[in-house]
Amino acid sequence: MSESTIRAAIYSILNAVTDIGKVYDYEQWTAEWAQFINLFKTTIDGEDQIRGWEIGRRSVGEKLFAMGMNERDHGFVIRGYMRVNDALASEKTFNNLIEAAADVFRTNFTLNGAAKSHDNIQTETIDFRLFGGVLCHYAESSLIVHEECEA
Q1: For 44, phi and psi rounded to 5 degrees?
Q2: pLDDT in tens, 49-71
């Protein structure tokens, strides 16, 4: 197991969620808002829209849990974006995507064998953000993943 293996598993699991949009296995950055928005443009049900997710790591810690074995705890952040469309009740769709993501991780305790375990997704922020003049739903979730490693 390793951070890169765990990150790849998170990406694979999240990317398999129906209609999730574009998924990136690292945080996207650009100096231009228009370029940033274009990174998340996708087509769902024949409609072009902004819908995407990015995975980053915000912390790592390690502790001894058995003689000769340590547990490394990776703190991942998953950020989601989706263009607001009141006529289509996009708030409901966005919240359904948050729930669908939580469901697939809840039922995959070892992240396809890439980790010892995880603490389930916790979504601390569900809000709106303005990106380059486009109002988007925004979610920020955390996922603590436990990895066994030799001391």
Answers
A1: -125, 125
A2: 999 999 999 999 988 877 778 89
Tokens 């940033």 belong to residue:
36
DSSP string, 62-104: EEEEETTEEEEEEEEEEEEEEE--GGGTHHHHHHHHHHHHHHH
User: Could you read off the pLDDT of 83-137 as tens digits, one per residue?
Assistant: 999 998 999 999 999 999 999 999 999 999 999 999 999 999 999 998 878 899 9
Q: What's CA 5's distance to the chain center, in Å? A: 15
- Rounded CA-CA distance 58/68 in Å is 26
Give the CATH number of domain 3-150.
Answer: 3.30.70.1700
